[in-house]
């Protein structure tokens, strides 16, 4: 077996990354890249399960852990640059990058291995807990019970979102406070905020977590008929995103009863948020069948309730610990065949 390596953690920024190396001659490849602080070669330290040292090309302090015969884990800094440098050096030393992620897991079958691959793209602690539970369930599932398959397929969308965020689009007329709401929900200022209507000329998106669920908040351009060509291009993008969003939030101004656009609420709006309630004693609350939330992005009034409403809207039912959930296309197709 040739010496192989594979990034075991998600390929992205983090505190720590882990790169697996295996195959006869692995210690020799590591000798060419890694210098233990003891001054000895790595291959001479066969009796040490954990070796601390320096990665030659970057000067980074890291740890190499022996996990079996000719099998090792390089535990390094979680930056992309650090991982890419290790991959480059291992390849230069004769190792081959493995594309078979499943073979690096403890999976009992290919469907369980799909969950292991999904874990590499996990975004929050809450979704990680669900995926760990699914890893166990997919190793024990009874594929002779159509009812199990039918129940699992009810959570197809939920399973897809465990590895990609729910997209939430905030739409509405200019200057109703969409950018300010995005900033409060994210906990820092990302979108441009200005008193001039139409300041947000393009789509601004930010990834965050709400109630532990990964979400992408999209601050759309204010939708209006007038405006220059640049603004209109942003508005057209916003209309396209609204059609594909997992949740549409229609933001209106509590001080302006003309800021409500009935057409927007008819177009898949899930929540109507009445912003700026701190500026008036009697907010202009539109008549609509959609749930309405009264908030102030400035004072924070109603923001906790808004986050709870968003969480309920994107995940109306949270599957129990013993509920099978498909997290990949392969799993979904297998369940459809059984059901």
TrEMBL record:
Keyword terms: Hydrolase
GO MF: GTP binding; hydrolase activity
GO biological process, one term: tRNA methylation
Source taxon at top rank: Bacteria
Protein name in UniProt: tRNA modification GTPase MnmE
CC annotations in GO: cytoplasm
Keyword Hydrolase part of the UniProt annotation: yes
């Amino acid at each position: 077996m040739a010496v192989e390596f594979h990034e075991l953690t998600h390929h992205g920024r983090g505190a720590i990354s882990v790169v697996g190396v295996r195959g006869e001659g692995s210690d020799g490849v590591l000798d060419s890249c890694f210098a233990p602080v003891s001054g000895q070669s790595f291959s001479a330290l066969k009796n040490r399960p954990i070796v601390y040292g320096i990665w030659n090309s970057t000067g980074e302090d890291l740890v190499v852990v022996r996990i079996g015969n000719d099998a090792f884990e390089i535990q390094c800094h979680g930056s992309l640059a650090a991982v890419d440098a290790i991959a480059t050096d291992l390849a230069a030393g004769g190792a081959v990058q493995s594309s078979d992620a499943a073979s690096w897991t403890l999976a009992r079958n290919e469907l369980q291995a799909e969950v292991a691959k999904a874990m590499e793209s996990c975004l929050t602690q809450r979704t990680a807990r669900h995926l760990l539970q699914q890893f166990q369930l997919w190793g024990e599932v009874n594929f002779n019970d159509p009812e199990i398959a039918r129940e699992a397929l009810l959570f197809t969308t939920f399973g897809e979102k465990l590895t990609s965020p729910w997209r939430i689009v905030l739409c509405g007329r200019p200057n109703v406070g969409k950018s300010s709401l995005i900033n409060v929900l994210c906990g820092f200022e990302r979108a441009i905020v200005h008193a001039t209507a139409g300041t947000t000329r393009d789509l601004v998106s930010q990834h965050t977590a709400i109630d532990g669920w990964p979400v992408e908040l999209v601050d759309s351009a204010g939708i209006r008929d007038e405006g220059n060509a640049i603004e209109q291009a942003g508005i057209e993008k916003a209309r396209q995103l609204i059609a594909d969003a997992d949740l549409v939030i229609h933001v209106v101004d509590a001080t302006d009863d003309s800021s409500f656009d009935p057409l927007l609420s008819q177009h898949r709006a899930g929540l109507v948020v009445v912003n700026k309630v701190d500026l008036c004693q009697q907010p202009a609350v539109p008549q609509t069948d959609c749930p309405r939330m009264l908030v102030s992005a400035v004072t924070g009034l109603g923001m906790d309730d808004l986050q709870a409403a968003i969480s309920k809207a994107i995940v109306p039912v949270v599957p129990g610990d013993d509920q099978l959930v498909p997290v990949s296309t392969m799993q979904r197709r297998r369940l459809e065949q059984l059901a």
